[in-house]
From TrEMBL:
Protein origin, superkingdom: Eukaryota
InterPro entries xrefs: RNaseH-like_sf, ZnF_BED_domain_contain
SUPFAM superfamilies associated with the record: Ribonuclease H-like (SSF53098)
Organism of this sequence: Champsocephalus gunnari (Mackerel icefish)
Protein name listed in UniProt: Uncharacterized protein
Length: 117
């Protein structure tokens, strides 16, 4: 699509595709991210149902949560604990012993996401 990806332009391409593929009469459904141009395109192309991608919505919420000062501070503390445990064999053994006593699964010394490390 060489023209700008505005909602109106996208809607026009979607309408043409629906007509070309003879889908319009079959109650078409579309799944998109949360971009405003995609929302406009879905509305203007008249889909029976427009579903915004749950994974994208969840990721946006997580990204916003990571910007909250209290969350960032907590993650900083977790990073320091993980890094300390990685560098100190004594601390690592103490952590594993506490996990055993509390009947918790043994941590592998990594944060849940490389993006958080």
């Amino acid at each position: 699509m060489p023209e700008s990806h505005t909602g109106r332009n996208l809607a026009e391409h979607l309408r043409k595709a629906l007509a070309e593929w003879e889908i319009k009469e079959k109650d078409p459904v579309i799944v998109t991210d949360n971009a405003s141009n995609m929302t406009i395109a879905a509305e203007e192309a008249v889909f029976t149902l427009h579903v915004k991608c749950y994974a994208h919505t969840l990721n946006l919420a997580a990204q916003r949560a990571l910007k909250i000062t209290a969350v960032a501070r907590l993650l900083g503390r977790v990073r320091r604990i993980v890094n300390f445990s990685r560098r100190s064999t004594t601390a690592n053994h103490m952590l594993k012993e506490k996990q055993r006593l509390l009947q918790l699964p043994e941590a592998n010394g990594h944060l849940c996401s490389p993006a958080l490390e």
